[in-house]
Design goal:
By secondary structure, the protein is an alpha/beta fold. The chain has 4 helices and 6 strands. It has a single domain, classed as Alpha-Beta Plaits, CATH 3.30.70.100.
Length: 142
């Protein structure tokens, strides 16, 4: 098996996503990523995305190429790219902030990451860079 690889990027939605669009994005992403052995965390708030993707390098390279040409977002900036020792997000997940929808919360892959309070984890010295970035995103949207 190829070693684990990670890509973390940020982007801006060309048009803000509503609940329906986010649910469709979540369903499709979880289905495709599960088949490809890709996990990670996608965070969305007010038109801003940040995503950490983990898996085999070839699968991530192919996925990021598709993401880069997706017309639903622009200003794509790759923040981190490289090998990792282990997955930081072993369950495919997507988190949205303040979308009070029981239906959404029941979807496989949905994460409460953005709806939980910060707990000081950002101050830890030994957290992976990708997790620090996601926590900074969380901190700065509040």
């Amino acid at each position: 098996m190829e070693s684990l690889y990670q890509i973390v990027y940020t982007s801006v939605a060309t048009v803000p996503f509503g609940r329906t669009e986010l649910m469709e994005l979540l369903k499709g992403s979880v289905r495709r990523n599960t088949r490809a052995g890709i996990t990670g965390l996608l965070l969305y708030q007010s038109g801003a995305f940040i995503q950490a993707l983990e898996g085999e390098k070839a699968a991530l390279t192919e996925l990021f190429e598709k993401i880069s040409h997706d017309p639903r977002h622009h200003h794509i900036i790759r923040l981190i790219q490289g090998p990792i020792e282990e997955r930081n997000f072993p369950d495919s997940a997507m988190a949205f902030r303040d979308l009070d929808s029981p239906e959404l919360r029941r979807l496989p892959g949905y994460s409460e990451f953005l709806n939980t309070p910060l707990n000081g984890e950002l101050l830890a010295k030994d957290i992976p860079a990708c997790k620090r970035l996601l926590l900074l995103f969380k901190k700065n949207i509040r």
